[in-house]
Design a protein that fits this description.
Length: about 375
């Protein structure tokens, strides 16, 4: 089976695709090729530019224009390749907005971690207005064509699966839930602490604002300076300060990340944008307890009290209290960290989740063939 993977590499998707590619190497029955959508060039940036005088009313259709600009790039690349693969996998739904006819022309699977119905009311940088519903109606018609054209639709979480059923009418027989997983690192050798060592709290996020990094830094300054060291893995320019280690050169797949997580006492991500965070899964796989938000599918990854602590988005007081509780109780940290690693092994191991995806790709080939060549009765 020859499969083409079209990858929308934004946010944490790049890390997800690295884990997926690594796991696919162990499936000899599938030959893979990849189309990684590059960052927007000048033309795509112009097409997707915000129009402030309309954007404040959510009437500029900026997300849709940006996604269609990306989609036209994908269409130009995929159409000439249409007969060079047996099945097409597209991630995410926005990468398929301009190719519903190509999705129908071949066996296809569209996987997604969110829907635009959910995004419209959850993205912190675009506030919904009285006109948001009108914009969504147009967006939804285009999005619905993608779901109707795909042979199967894969939801990355139950959170997004509910939206696919209720908001877009994706029938149960064409919907599967597969939480794309991570590569499980080896259990690190424990390092004996010295009397002067402080526990380390680690944050990973390209955007400090959208991932809650500035909020975490503020809470650290106010309450945690004497209790821990703060590691900020980010590409943003954070001023040097006492007790804060800033790491700007880590990229997805860098083995130094797992070395850092092996020394980490708590992983903190007070995000208001992540739907299914791979940074959270990587920390859990390393046996690190999590402090993150009750947002989107994050409670499915790290349930409150099982793998860490969940807080309300935007609540500094809850963030500080959760971190102090874990910093003051090493035994609790160890129990939650063990639970976190066990949960990843059971539910989010890339070897298992990728096998489920490969099975879905096979099923798509069989179903597409049956729909076009139904068996004749006796």
């Amino acid at each position: 089976m020859r499969a083409l993977f079209v990858n929308e590499n934004i946010g944490g998707h790049a890390a997800m695709h690295l884990h997926l590619r690594g796991a696919l190497k162990h499936h000899s029955q599938i030959t893979t090729s990849f189309l990684d959508v590059p960052p927007a060039g000048l033309l795509r940036r112009v097409v997707g530019a915000s129009l402030p005088w309309l954007g404040r009313w959510d009437l500029d259709l900026q997300p849709l224009r940006a996604q269609l600009g990306q989609g036209l790039y994908i269409r130009r690349r995929v159409r000439p390749m249409l007969h060079s693969f047996d099945v097409l996998h597209v991630y995410s739904v926005n990468a398929g907005l301009a190719i519903p006819d190509l999705l129908r022309a071949r066996p296809s699977v569209v996987s997604t971690d969110s829907t635009n119905q959910l995004n419209a009311y959850s993205l912190p940088y675009r506030q919904p207005t009285r006109w948001t519903g009108e914009a969504l109606r147009l967006h939804g018609r285009i999005e619905r064509k993608v779901y109707e054209s795909a042979t199967f639709v894969v939801a990355q979480s139950e959170w997004v699966a509910a939206s696919l059923r209720e908001d877009y009418g994706v029938p149960e027989e064409r919907l599967r839930v597969i939480p794309f997983g991570v590569t499980i690192p080896a259990v690190p050798e424990p390092q004996p602490p010295t009397s002067s060592d402080l526990p380390q709290v680690t944050f990973v996020g390209t955007s400090m604002a959208r991932k809650g990094g500035w909020r975490l830094l503020r809470v650290f300054r106010q309450h945690l300076r004497t209790r821990c060291t703060l590691n900020l893995v980010t590409r943003e320019d954070v001023p040097p300060q006492l007790g804060v280690r800033i790491i700007r050169d880590l990229i997805p797949g860098d083995p130094r990340l797992f070395e850092l997580l092996a020394r980490t006492a708590i992983f903190a991500l007070p995000t208001e944008i992540d739907k299914s965070s791979y940074a959270v899964l990587e920390a859990m796989a390393s046996g690190v307890p999590i402090v993150t938000t009750r947002f989107a599918a994050l409670p499915e990854l790290a349930p409150d009290g099982l793998a860490g602590r969940l807080i309300d988005p935007g609540d500094d007081e809850q963030l500080g209290a959760a971190l102090i509780e874990l910093l003051d109780d090493e035994g609790l940290r160890r129990r939650l960290g063990d639970n976190a690693r066990r949960r990843v092994l059971e539910r989010f191991d890339a070897r298992i989740t990728t096998a489920n995806l490969v099975e879905t790709l096979n099923d798509a080939c069989e179903r597409w063939t049956q729909d076009r060549h139904p068996r004749q009765g006796p």
